[in-house]
Amino acid sequence: MAARVDPRHVRARHQSMHHLVANAAWDDAAVLRVARETVLDAMERHGAVAAWIVDDTGFPKKGRHSVGVSRQYCGVLGKQDNCQVAVTVTLTNEAVSVPAAFTLYLPESWAGDLQRRRTAGVPDDVQFRTKGQIALEQITALLGEAVPLAPVLADAGYGVVTAWRDQLTLRGIPYVVGVTGETTVWPEDQSPLRPRRWKGRGRPPTRVRRSAGHRPVSIAELAETLPPGAWRSITWRQGTRGAMRSRFACVRVRPAHRDQNRHEPRPEEWLLMEWPRGEPSPIKFWLSTMPPETPITQLVRLAMMRWRIERDYQELKDEFGLDHYEGRGWRGFHHHGILCIAAYAFLAAERARLSPPEPLSFLHPARLPKGFRPRGAPSAA
Fold first, then answer.
1. CA atoms within 13 A on the CB side of 87
2. Which residues partner with 71 through β-bridges?
3. pLDDT single digits (tens) 224-247
4. Is the torsion defined by CA of 294, 297, 300, 304 positive or negative?
5. What whole-number distance in Å separates Cα of residue 271 and Cα of residue 282?
6. How far is it, in rounded angstroms, from Cα 105 to Cα 133?
7. Which of 6, 16, 32, 279 is deepest in the core (most CB within 10 A)?
8. What is the DSSP code (8-state) at residue 13?
9. Structure pTM?
């Protein structure tokens, strides 16, 4: 890049560009805001924002001096290893997506190490926060910037945390989030027992309760008890190999996590389950606070829309060098990531501008005449 900019002074330009990324005091949040708005303007041709996708991505690293590097789970490697992890929130619809927030996760081992923090330039106000807490801060910031609201999507790494889901509800944001089969719920038309009857002594009981014969069940157990007619084959989109299709069931439940400490049962939510043909048991589960009248087809499309973040990460790393940063500092890590996202946002905006909107997507190219041979093509002989 330096050679293209100034072939006569490559070394000096290279140093200048390195300084721009690693040390210059420009506002990466402002750059990301401009990139996001550019994509949102182009996205309007294809419809409103359909979802906010919360996820994180890992960057394998050696050593211990690069900011935030620690032995932790790395999704790229599929195991525990030395890596950095960034939490993101992506705005998406069926045609376009763009990351709108990008923050490095700082492990506890880093948050309490003053020497390493000082060397890497970690700001004093950055303390240890879980990935879920970082995501909630990002969501709150986007709400404050009047970004178009949409349901939050997340995998089970975030969705299994009941307190995290409760925070989304407190902010008035519906969600469709993954959970595990061990998550407990009250089946439809069931709920915890009322508080015990007051016997006239002490404080009146106010907490709901369970009993030996009246307890919640795990989602996996509930799925096994559903009748065959509860499962429907649903196509959620067209993939490169044809229609994406599987079997799903959807029921109303009440999450039961520690509800014996509550004064009233939790509200009902949707429980969406996937059980592909040929599998011995259901493979995926989601909880959702979408309205009760939401059709199952819409829930499935939302749940499956998370595939876009995987594609975004792959392109950001393979085509834009998101995982190529070799510096060690906090500022440089975020500057590099935001510049990669800004370049990706330009590409996403161009795709949205040049792609036909949904009403025209059914059009197919004209059939070629029989025996047609493009100019310059070799003859059949």
1. 22
2. 82
3. 999 999 999 999 988 777 888 999
4. negative
5. 13
6. 10
7. 32
8. H
9. 0.88
